[in-house]
Write a structure and sequence with these properties.
The chain is built from 15 helices and 11 strands. By secondary structure, the protein is an alpha/beta fold. α7 packs parallel to α9 and α14 crosses α15.
Length: about 400
């Protein structure tokens, strides 16, 4: 059984630990950039948005902290680097800016500084060897990952340089698409408050297109540098383009892919994965992390608004993936907590609640299969591909 300090452990494939540090980060950045008024304003707006879109109530605290990880027996969290303003203040379809990458590196440093100031309470793993040395130490572990390929560069040459730098900084994976089309990959609607049809009307994307030329450059650079590819948020054509690009380069299908915070398409939501995509991820030995967003997990299902109903909904997605793939070897948990997914599944709104989730998995599936879902599958893929450089063809 996977253990952390003698306890069972969950690996969360997708959590927004840095979100509650954004205000401090903006303050640190404005001192360097001498634009304090703008950065402070942005920081306060991010704080307000977080309270509205993440926290259960106005007086509540973040859902992803090191204390909550300990309480919920979450041993490892893939910690998302993402600058909301760099996506939300630009028009749909706007090309990436060079400054985005600098902001990304700044945000990473904010998390590094926080971990250094709280040594003994939280640690950061920058490689598989560091991860393995930290496991079992009883301290929650963060692993840096990036959400939004639009932050990687403006052209293929810049993307390659930046991805090389990210690999050196210990980035484990990149979620290539995100909330809006930014000239990298077409994305599926993922705003819980907007129906798919209205999102598609308000934010049109190139018809029939998946990966752009810049997107193909992103995929190549990531494979070269051993940074895992996350298919979450992509439209179906983008997913097909990624898989075709990988098949051309890796016909033996040795390179795993991730879908870190997904759901099965029980309803009609384009964000959720269909049968073909799920079996394709499994064929590459990848992992599908089930999101804890109520909007995606209950679409097409009739479930009670309670902890028991939430656990049942989650397990129906797990059971469907098992039905399609024939095993539990490709299933994980990717909560997306503090990632603007409010409302989360009732009873699973913060990291401290993950203890109940793990207990339910053990009861329903037995220790061996629950271990795979809780963290074994995620660790297997990280150990197989994170940091594994592959020569360009």
């Amino acid at each position: 059984m996977i253990r952390r300090g003698g306890l069972r452990m969950l690996v969360d494939l997708h959590a927004h630990f840095p979100m509650h540090l954004l205000v401090d980060e903006q303050q640190r950045t404005h001192e360097r950039a001498c634009v304090w008024w703008r950065q402070r304003w942005q920081g306060r707006v991010v704080e307000l948005i977080s309270r509205v879109a993440n926290y259960q109530g106005p007086g509540d605290s973040p859902s992803v902290t090191e204390q909550q990880m300990c309480e919920g027996e979450v041993g490892v969290a893939l910690s998302m680097l993402y600058q909301p303003f760099n996506e939300l203040t630009e028009s749909n379809g706007a090309p990436p800016r060079g400054s985005y990458f600098d902001d990304l590196v700044d945000q990473r440093q904010t998390v590094e500084d926080y971990a250094a100031a709280h040594a003994g309470a939280v640690a950061i793993a920058h490689s598989v060897s560091e991860l393995d040395s930290l496991l079992g130490g009883g301290v929650p572990i963060l692993i840096h990952a990036v959400e939004g390929g639009f932050q990687l560069g403006r052209d293929p040459a810049e993307v390659r340089r930046n991805v090389q730098e990210l690999a050196g900084l210990g980035i484990a994976y990149v979620t290539v698409a995100h909330l809006f089309f930014r000239d990298v990959a077409t994305n599926a609607p993922a705003l819980p408050f907007l129906p798919d049809w209205l999102y598609n009307l308000a934010f049109p994307q190139p018809k029939g297109e998946g990966l752009t030329s810049l997107g193909h450059a992103v995929i190549d650079a990531m494979v070269d540098e051993g940074i895992l590819i996350d298919l979450t948020h992509m439209r179906t054509q983008s997913i097909k383009d990624v898989l075709a690009q990988l098949d051309a380069r890796d016909p033996a299908r040795e390179i795993p892919v991730l879908a870190t915070h997904m759901a099965y398409r029980f309803g009609g939501l384009q964000y959720s994965f269909d049968d073909e995509t799920i079996t394709a991820v499994a064929a590459r030995g990848g992992v599908l992390g089930c999101i804890l967003c109520e909007h995606f997990m209950t679409s097409g299902l009739s479930v009670a608004s309670s902890l028991e109903g939430s656990l049942d909904a989650l397990c129906r997605h797990i059971d469907k993936i098992h039905e399609l793939t024939g095993s539990y070897d490709n299933i994980g948990i990717g909560s997306d907590l503090d990632g603007y997914i409010k409302p989360a599944l009732p009873g699973l709104e913060e990291m401290s609640r993950m203890k109940q989730l793990q207990a339910h998995l053990r009861t329903r599936y037995g220790d061996a299969e629950a271990e795979k879902i809780s963290g074994g599958n995620a660790l297997r893929v990280l150990r197989a591909e994170w940091g594994r450089k592959r020569p360009r063809p």
